[in-house]
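Running this now, will post back.
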Amino acid sequence: MERRFFNPSQPQTMQVAVFLLYANVVVALLFRSGGEGLFAAAANSVLRGDAPYDAATLLGNLIAVLFVIGSAGAAYLIANEKRIGWRLGVVVAAAPLVATLVVLTIGYPRRASLSNVIDIGFLFDVALLALLLHKQTRDYEKIWFK
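Update: finished.
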């Protein structure tokens, strides 16, 4: 069986989603911005000061590393038409959005405003999730993925 990093025979929505998943990895590796700040803020909000701030930062950085590894794995598995890759991609795409929601709603020690949270990265996260949940992508995944 042929292994590939990109599959041009997939629908355009899925191809762009694979590209954005790989872009998450490249941006995180080049700029060390795999969302560790966002995930650390969300972890600090959930822990609500019960743990030291360093523990929340460590948890946030661990989640960010898992996010980067998950992005690479999901892109590769989607390109090779594996259903688990699509599911992992949806989880990876939803993780920053969930973290943003946690920071906006719980926000410890203070809540962040919407204008502080929404940036270009947030818009790419929304676009990635929309591409993975698009009807054309879902139909292809249901028919062709193993």
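Residues 12-144 form one domain. More later if anyone needs it.
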